[in-house]
Amino acid sequence: MRASMIAGALLAASLANVSVVLAEGDLTTRPVELPALVLGSEESDYSMSQHRYELETGQAYKLGIISTGRKEYAIRAPEFFASIFLRKVEAGDMEIKAVSLTELEFEQEGEAEIYFVPVKPGDFEFRSAGLEGKGMVGTFSVR
Known about the structure:
single chain, mainly beta, 6-stranded mixed β-sheet, 40% strand, globular
């Protein structure tokens, strides 16, 4: 009897120190539309309109990526792509449903939209492959 009382007290003490972590997002609402990531501009072939995105786990997002066609741009974010639930990618008249992404490559002017839900917190780099030295890097910061 005494052993079970001690075990019960230990369990109660352990549970008192457990904090519940819940996602802030609400998947029943429309995705939050993020500012588009525009690659290249009239001022510089190597510009990116955004270098940081602040996101929350459990929130649905829509991110448009627009290439001006001034260079070939290959957007890579392997750690980020591995830490999201990818709902779909829309490009042109196509809707692509895949489990994950490796990169989005634009060989000319074009646009794609990514619909996703972050599931893992952290800071994740995105970059245009081969153009990092020109400043084409940024961060997805997921809380």
